[in-house]
Fold this sequence. Notes:
Shape: globular
Number of helices: 1
Helix content: under 10%
Low-confidence stretches: 1-18
Radius of gyration: 29 Å
Mean pLDDT: 90
Largest sheet: 9 strands, mixed
Amino acid sequence: MRNWLFIFLFFLSYMGYAQYRFVPYQDIPIGHPNETVKTFPWAGGLNGVQYGKIDLNNDNVIDVVGFDRSSGRIVCFLKSGNEYEYAPQYEKFFPSEIQNFFILNDYDGDGKNDLFTAGNLGITAYRNVSSGNSLQWERVVDFISYESLSGNEVNLQVNFNDYPYIGDIDKDGDIDILNFNFSGIQSRIIFYENKSADNGGNPDLGPFELVDNYWGSVEDCDCGVFAFNGENCEDIFGRMMSNARHAGGKSLVVFDFKEDGKLELVSSHEECRELYYFNNEASANQEPNFDSFTADFPNQDDPAQFNFYPNTMVMDLLDGVQEELIISPNIEANLGSPVDFSSSNWLYQKSGSEYELLTKEFLQEDMIDWGAQASPALYDYDQDGDLDLFLSYTDLSANEELFSAIALYENTGTSQNPVFELITDDYLGLSQEGLANMFIQWTDVDLDGRKDLILQATLQNNNQLRIIFQEASGLDLNSTISVNDVFIGFGFSVHFANIVGDDHPDLLVGKSSGGLILYENTGEGRNPQFQMKDDGFLGIGDDFFRSALRVHVADVDSDSQADLVTSDLSGNIRVFSDLATNDGAFDSLSIYNSLEQSFEDTYFGKRNNLVFAPLFNDDYPALVLGTVSGGIRIFRNTEEFPVQSGEELVFQLYPNPNQSGKLFIRTNQNISISIATLNGQKVLTAQSYQAFSNQAIDVSDLEGGIYIVSAVFENGERVSRKVVLY
């Protein structure tokens, strides 16, 4: 009577056209003991950030935008008084090519800040051509050139980690550029003067001329070592240093810090932990002359020191008379000297003649931010029927050593309305294990009905893969095994899932080079054994542009088939649907943008750790994204959380396939419902259904098979969906 094979194949072909659509969600309450309520807890954290100011929404209020070098994300905040509101809907409007440095300044005098960033050939510039409520950019030059002292036209190049100064040095109305010598030989500051406003011209991007290759008469010799006014670089023993002096990335800013009409200089180097402040000994309106420096900046009691490459930005953030200083490490990751990324955005306010440290967590204090490498996992550890949140992270200890631990947030809400409260920042006391770069997963390895905890981490730079088995009394560290028959290289990731089909969890290994390896679990119980089955699973091979691969297996679309979801260095998320039959085809994850009222492919940032879990609905899981910047972002599935886009009306059926006998509908308008067989026979005619009512339609009397459910909206538009009943 029922041709199930036909139904199954027909439904698969129908679902092959499905799109995976999600909505950013910020409204889950979360509590930390002895802390104020976080304004935007699910913004994703911040590491080393370069800030700029721009009017995002054309309301004549200048907002704040940051570029996080760790994740490669642009993060946007709307300003209201001295408060900020996280505004991810504006992130997509910034150029995708932003890299290395991010500077906003108005070069053409039209009152709108333009954008400068690193390009393959030097400095790339975008003109702000925004109008109305959305940002728009026009790429005006791939690189800025200048006339050298010999009269040749040359690309103005910057090092990979440079943060140049782009602003009006000579106060003639156009922007000039200061940067350290690109070659690294004699690390002196070069002044590139913009001649566009000379002789009554309009400010523009050049022409530029190199007018001073020893600006300020200062040379960077080493960390804390400088030479002035033509002196030779000498080390602490008085010996002359080599010609190639202190190569590498450097940042600089000039500003009238003393309010005496003269420009002072602050610089830093990618190998040094402190900032260097240079007092200008010249008279006002004369060329600067620096002959001494201090590392106690912005003040002696709270100097900005990050172990690694602090970067200073000057801007008005608090609507005061004077600009504030925002100082953040100009690095991508914790390599070499580690940085405390959980407190890495220091805000100083002018108080009299000094700068006072207001906070070490500007904007961070209003979001979940555990430092770096946040890896979420959800599991009902207290068996109260809702999912609790576990979050592994990597941070800096009091003795300046990297460590990893797990934070536990208990869900004190319900299975469909979660509320998270921090219980501990060191679940199981793992911070004492000497581990770093930890990633976690809950799964039942030994098939005893209890979830076990998977730990992937480094121990003294050696990769570890451990399984902590759950006993009837709970997790027991004494019941821990190490997996040693799988090679896990630097930057690799792991994920356990039943791929082969024998119920035992197999092992997927994402390579730092982008490939995906499948290892079959041929062991039993608490003795898993792994054999390589496919070194390019689903055709996912090494790919430079999709390196740092991380994966997760879940039924994303509630079709009772496991899907593979991938995240990589490209910043995109891909879904390989129905693993059992997938031949390498994938779809993109689309995110709703409230400004454009549409769904679109989204740049999520680099090095994300993802998990899907039924936080709000048992049928359609939410995406919980752990970021390299130590935070969490949450996206709700539109199948359970519909939004109205400018492109379409909302009409969704669940669960689908359906064996419960009750069919639920989500719609954003009142509709009239009809149900028919594939042969056109009506089994339900013109039943009214209220928008957002979440009422069930009884389909228990219908025979198993495929049915067409049609809706007629108030505007007369008709939409149909297929549903499988069995």
